[in-house]
Amino acid sequence: MATPYHVVDAAQFTVAELNDLFISADEMEELVLRNGVTDTLANRVMVILFYQPSTRTRLSFEAAMSRLGGHYISTENALHFSSHAKGESLEDAIQTVACYGDVVVLRYHKEGGAKRAARVSPVPLINAGDGPGEHPTQALLDMYTIRKQFGNIDNLGIALVGDLKHSRTIHSLAYLLASYPVRKIYLVSPESVTMPRALLEHLWQCGVVVEESRQLVDVAEDVEVIYTTRLQQEYFDEPELYQATQGQYILTDEVMQLLPQEAIILHPLPRNEEIPYKVDHDSRARYFQQVRNGLYMRMALLERVLLGVD
């Protein structure tokens, strides 16, 4: 039996593979706009096993599979409503649910869960987020959104903003950006939640120009992309630290005035107070377009892992 194609982390993708996925996602957009659905994955079944809450990722995968003509079965709170509550290991759970489908989409509450699952899964496994580790499919749609806006990803100034320590979306996006000749990556965060050292060293090794900053207003004028995230309270052991850092990186009027008109604002959502609702009406806001792009990218990814189509 052929080795299944797993999607575990962002660094596994080459630039050529990314470009193929971008092209495929463009084709999926055309397909959806023209026909709505296809039968490419007819008679295929996707199993969604989520140990953490999700709105966009889970529904996006469900919609992607449905529009490709396939089927899905899912549990959205496996931490409490699966045999995990009875002490079942992740490894046993994966080998069980793999019996019911052709691909497993896993969200796990602890870092490293996707790698553990991929070691034992007899069918393709897709990491839909593992604790504060990675979220590669979000990073794929983020890169796709940037590419659609600018035509390419080269020579851009990009600010990664917020909880850089715990944000799995930022971790995966940084790994993908490291494969491109971006002009500069600004890492904007409180000192208590800076980028993990190993990832920072990876960026340096790849020749990426990195500048750390504590104030978004200091870098806004020099970027084409602001990628901001919420402060993730669920990963803070000390409530006092969360309260001390909450609300430090809001897109204020001053930031918006400094940000170039051709720039874009991205956010993986859900948001808290870091993006005021009035920003939604600004032409630079692209976070709901990200959501739409996620459908096309996940359609492309499902087709690739199940059919081997680039």
Q: Approximately what portion of the residues adopt beta-strand conformation?
A: 5-15%
* Pattern of helices and strands: HEHEHEHEHEHEHEEHHEH
Number of helices: 10
How many strand segments?
9
Biggest beta sheet attributes: 5 strands, parallel
Which stretches are poorly predicted, pLDDT < 50 over at least 5 residues?
A: none
Strand order of the largest sheet: 7-6-5-8-9
The class by helix and strand makeup works out as alpha/beta
Number of domains: 2
The first-to-last residue Cα distance is: 21 Å
Average of pLDDT: 93
CATH architecture of the largest domain: 3-Layer(aba) Sandwich
Radius of gyration: 19 Å
Give the fraction of residues assigned to helices. Answer: 25-40%
* Top CATH class of the largest domain: Alpha Beta
CATH homologous superfamily (4th level) name of the largest domain? Aspartate/ornithine carbamoyltransferase
**Principal-axis shape:** globular
CATH fold title of the largest domain: Rossmann fold
